[in-house]
């Protein structure tokens, strides 16, 4: 048993972030495929989490498979799925005006929601590369008329090979500035994202571990959800980054390879 493991309680279920933990720009991080195989062989319940709400779980499973990581679609939990689960709980059979793509549209449809531009219960903002001035104007007017403002995730920017792209949080900010209304954001760092993931696999916080690469989303949400938190250094965190925050993960590892038996 390593020093690291002495401080690790018996973890029966795992939640892991995707980008920066299992894959980096569609390439598997060494040890990631083996860790998924280990969990599968031991029949340990797990979910792969992502704040990205563009893609469906099926799309993401295919992307992971292309990088050599075999994760079935039912083992993937996106901010779109978490948002749909939240809205179904808030108002079963409700209606929504959606700024987003397949991920959030499919999730809401599967949750029994109707998409409408006429008096929706909710305006839902998800990740999209195709928003227009007209659609944003419509969203603003519907919120002003009383639709509740929900967003899948707060990430202001996303990565691309050419540099950052404006992401969901940037569109949230534009709508907030125009309406004076803040959205309720379901994805990380809202611990609800982890709670809904645990509900899906029947996990309990006291024996669930959470692996992430970002202090400001994964780790803070993991702490708030009462999970055993593991920060890996394969994403954007470095030692100086950790020092900036007033909280600490339970463990800091070089990569997921250190979780292999």
UniProtKB/TrEMBL annotation:
UniProt protein name: HAD-IIA family hydrolase
- What protein family does this chain belong to? Belongs to the HAD-like hydrolase superfamily.
Query: What are the alphabetically sorted keywords of the record?
Result: Hydrolase
Keyword Ribosomal protein applies: no
Q: Where is the signal peptide?
A: none
**Which species does this protein come from?**
Leucobacter albus
| GO MF annotations, alphabetized | hydrolase activity
Tagged with keyword Hydrolase: yes
Identify the NCBIfam families for this entry: HAD-SF-IIA (TIGR01460)
């Amino acid at each position: 048993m390593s020093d690291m493991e002495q401080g690790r309680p018996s973890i029966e279920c795992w939640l892991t972030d995707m980008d920066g933990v299992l894959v980096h720009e569609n390439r598997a991080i060494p040890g990631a495929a083996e860790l998924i195989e280990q969990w599968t062989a031991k029949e340990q319940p797990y979910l792969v989490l992502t704040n990205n709400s563009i893609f469906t779980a099926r799309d993401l499973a295919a992307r992971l498979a292309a990088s050599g990581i075999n994760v079935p679609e039912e083992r993937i939990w996106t901010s779109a799925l978490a948002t749909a689960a939240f809205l179904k709980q808030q108002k079963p059979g409700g209606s929504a005006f959606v700024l987003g793509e397949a991920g959030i549209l499919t999730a809401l449809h599967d949750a029994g929601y109707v998409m409408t531009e006429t008096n929706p219960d909710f305006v839902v903002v998800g990740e999209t590369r195709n928003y227009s001035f007209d659609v944003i104007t419509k969203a603003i007017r519907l919120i002003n008329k009383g639709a509740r403002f929900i967003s899948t995730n707060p990430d202001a920017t996303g990565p691309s090979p050419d540099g950052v792209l404006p992401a969901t949080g940037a569109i949230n900010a534009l709508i907030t500035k125009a309406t004076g209304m803040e959205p309720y954001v379901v994805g990380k760092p809202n611990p609800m994202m982890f709670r809904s993931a645990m509900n899906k696999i029947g996990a309990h916080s006291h024996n669930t571990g959470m692996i992430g690469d970002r202090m400001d989303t994964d780790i803070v949400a993991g702490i708030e959800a009462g999970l055993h938190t593991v920060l890996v250094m394969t994403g954007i965190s470095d030692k100086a980054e950790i020092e900036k925050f007033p909280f600490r993960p339970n463990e800091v590892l070089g990569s997921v390879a250190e979780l292999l038996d």
